[in-house]
Write a structure and sequence with these properties.
Elements (H helix, E strand, L loop, with lengths): L3 E7 L3 E8 L5 E8 L6 H19 L6 E8 L2 E3 L4 E5 L4 E4 L1 H9 L2 E6 H12 L8 E6 L3 E7 L2 E2 L31 H4 L1 H13 L6 H4 L7 H9 L3 H25 L3 E5 L1 H5 L1 H14 L2 H4 L3 E4 L6 H7 L1 H8 L1
Parallel strand pairs: 1-4, 4-8, 9-12, 12-13
Antiparallel strand pairs: 1-2, 2-3, 5-6, 6-7, 9-10, 10-11
Helix pairs in contact: 3-12, 5-8, 8-10
The chain binds zinc ion (ZN).
Length: about 325
Amino acid sequence: MKKYNIGIDLGGTKVLCALVEITTKKVLFMVKKKTKKEKGNEKVFSKLIEAIDELLEISKVNKDEISSIGIAVAGQVNRKEGILINACNLQCKNLDLKKQIEDKYNIKTYIANDVEAATIAELLMGAAKDYKNVLCVFVGTGIGSCLVVDGKIYHGATGSAGELGHVIVDLNGRSCNCGAVGCLEAYASRSAIESRIQGAVKKGRNSIITELTDTQNISTKHIKKSLDAHDEVVSQYVNEAIEYLSGGLASAINFFNPELIVLGGGLIQGINDIYLKTIRLTKNKALSVASNKTEFKKAELEDFSGIIGASLIEEYRLCLK
Ligand SMILES: [Zn+2]
C-alpha cells in the first residue's frame, strides 16, 4: 500500500527532502543539505541521492510504501522527460533526473519548476483550492509567476508561459538578469528595492537601514523595520516598487481576467502593508470590467511550498488525466 510521497525542493543554497503522508499531506520527516558549494550535474545529483538515502534511513519507511518522488527545482525543466534543462544557480545542464532516480530507487519520479510546484501546492491545498483561473505571483529576490487556466497550469508552446517578471515595463529602463531591458523584475522585486536603496545611500542620503545592516545584505526584515520607522529612503523605493508591481498585475488582469490572484514570496509574506497596498493600487489601475470580480489572497504554503508542491506533482498530473 502506497502511503507516502517524497517531495524535494532543490535550490541554489540547499536541498530539502521530505517524506509527506499522502492522505494528510503532512510532512513527517525532513532532511536538509547544503548545495552552496556543490555545483554541476554530478555533485548536485550525489547531494540529492545523499538526501533521499538519509530520509529513507531516518524515516525507516519501506520503499514499496512510497508512491512517487517529486522534485521542484529553480530552473527550466522538461516535464515530460524529467530533465533539468538548465539551473544557473546549481550550474546544472541537461541533467536526466527522472531516469537516474527511477533507475536507482525504482520509484516513479516527476520534476517541476519551483514556481510551478508552489502553484500546484496552492491549487491542490492552499489559497487557490476550488478556483479555476488563477495567477500566482511570488515576489522575492526575483518575481516568479504561474498561470492556471481552467484548473490546469498553462505552460505555453515551449513551457515558459507566465513569466510576469519579464514583462517589459520600461523600454529604456534598467537591465534585467535575463539579459533584456526594462523587465518588471528589475523594478518590483526585493533585489530591485535593494539596489535602489544602495544607490541612494551611496549618494549620501541618510537611511536608518544603514544602522540595521550593511547595505550589501538587505533582507525583508530590514526593509520592514525601516518602513515601521517611517524611513524616507526605504519608503520611497518600496512605494516605487509597489507602483510597478501593481502596474504589472493590472496589466495581467486586463490581459488574462483571472478570478483569483495569489500573492506570495518573501516581500509579500513578510510585509503585510506591501500586500495590501499592492492590491489597492492594482484595482485602481486595472480595467474595472476585468478586475471587479478578481479576488486576491496570500499564498498559504510559503515555507514548505516547494516540498509540498513537489510531493503533489503526481497527484496533480493524475488529476489532469
Ligand atoms: Zn527579464
